[in-house]
Amino acid sequence: MEQGNRTTVTEFIFLGLSSSREVQLALFFLFLILYISVLLGNLLLIVAIQSDPRLNCPMYFFLAKLAFLDICYCSVTSPKALKDFFSSFKAISYGGCMAQVFLIHFLGAAELLLLVGMAFDRYMAVCRPLHYASLVNPKLCWMVVVAAWTGGLVHAVTLMSFVTELQFCGLNNTLDSFYCDIPQVAKLACASVSSTEIIAFASNEGVILPCFLMLIASYCFLLLKLRSYPPKARSNVTSTCITHVIVIVFMFSPAIYIYWYPFRNVAVDKSVTVFHTMIFPLTNPVIYTLRNKEVASSMKRMIHRYFLLQVGTQESYTWDKFP
Question: Where do the DSSP E strands lie in 44-154?
Fold first, then answer.
């Protein structure tokens, strides 16, 4: 329907990442490998944490919830993107597009806030070790998780209240991307979107940048605090803190770049969005497995137990072989 120069948009058309069939085929296999890796890697991480009593502590509790968010986050855009690689007409309904925008910001903000909770857990472990077990109890851990999900919901609802008010002109409903997000959708809006740009900037960077700076500052403080620890204890905690910092940098850098100037048109945006939606969710299982000996050992034991059950062997086994 069209009223004057305004059109009621019922669907959006994706231009995708390339118009070449050969490139699209290569990208399909790349996306498929990445998506399967995200699913398997994070599921393996969750199962390893849940099945190993030695990982029954707040840090790994939060890590399992982070892995679950990664699975959900990657699943918002990946299935649709994989399907579109074999379609010459890459369309998404208006409702589907708005759902993608909502879920991306809901899950992204929840994950960001959960990282803040993980930083608080490390602060308590380093600065209040004698009171850590009593203060950071299961009830508090669940409260942190609920607060993270609630904060993500409030953030997404706030953004959507402005995005759904956008009016679209003419017949231009083409998005130069492979998924829906505020910067792409707002470019199609009628007249000036300066107010929407300000809201998007304030809502995203008002959350992302302060949290990023706060997290980096808190971990720098913790690393300085660790200088007074005995060498062995300092090594273990330092490794954990550095792992958290790597995850934070991998998550925040693309987000800050994408939403700093949300309506500019720069070619590199597509490669950054691919990293942000497909590669980042894979970093948690990879980084934590490589840098955390307890997680790596738990995964090895779990995989070995699985293969022992598969072959039906009854041979005795010494776990010391898998330190």
Answer: 91-93
Of these ranges, 121-130, 196-205, 251-260, 310-319, the one predicted with the greatest mean pLDDT is 121-130
- Confirm if 208 and 45 have CB atoms less than 8 A apart: no
* Nearest-angstrom CA–CA distance, 141 and 124: 12
Residue with tokens 């969750």: 46
Can you tell me the distance from the alpha carbon of 77 to that of 4, in angstroms, rounded to the nearest whole number? 34
Q: 2-321: what fold?
A: Rhopdopsin 7-helix transmembrane proteins (1.20.1070)
- Side by side, which strands form the sheet with 6-7? 2-3, 6-7, 168-169
Rounded to two decimals, the pTM is 0.83
Domain ranges of the chain: 2-321
Give the model confidence (pLDDT) of 95-118 as tens digits.
999 999 999 999 988 998 998 898
Question: CA 289, 209, 101 angle in degrees (round to 5)?
Answer: 80
Whole-number Å distance between alpha carbons of 76 and 89: 20
| DSSP code for 177 | S
Rg of the chain over all Cα atoms, to the nearest angstrom = 22
